[in-house]
Amino acid sequence: MKTITMKLITIVLLLLLIASPAYSQSTFASFWISFKAAVARNDKQAVADLTKLPFLFDSTERDRDAFIKIYPQLFTRKLRRCLATAKPTKEGEKYDLYCGELIFYFGKDTDGKFKFLEFGVND
């Protein structure tokens, strides 16, 4: 009986840990689910929340409002379809994702949470 109780307590504690916001925000899998869903909904606000700001675009740093304005240029319908099925690959502490001519980079911000960091041209 004591062994079953200890196992049950351990399982409950693990479930609470996994469900906690600190844990879920620090895992890439959790971030990726949120990011991909926000892009699929075409939710500029949510994508901005998941992006490291200021965001460099056309050699200009963009704050939150400016990022939301350029969002349609970056997240075209074609790109959103690609992001729905593309699989990120881990490269050291960061993740890369290829969509056609673009490479997207994801990693932890200074707050320790995963964010969309930048994109570049796939040479």
Detailed description of the structure:
The protein is of the alpha+beta class and about 120 residues long. The protein has a single domain (about 30-120), classed as Nuclear Transport Factor 2, Chain: A, CATH 3.10.450. It has helices at about 1-20, 20-25, 30-40, 45-50, 65-75, 75-85; strands spanning about 55, 60, 90, 95-100, 100-110, 115-120. The strands form two sheets. It has a four-stranded antiparallel sheet, covered by helices on one side. Strands 1-2 form a two-stranded antiparallel sheet. The radius of gyration is 18 Å and the shape is globular. It starts with a helix and ends with a strand.
Short description:
By secondary structure, this protein is of the alpha+beta class. The chain has 6 helices and 6 strands, in the order ααααββααββββ.
Core attributes:
alpha+beta; 4-stranded antiparallel β-sheet; two-stranded antiparallel sheet; 123 residues; Nuclear Transport Factor 2, Chain: A
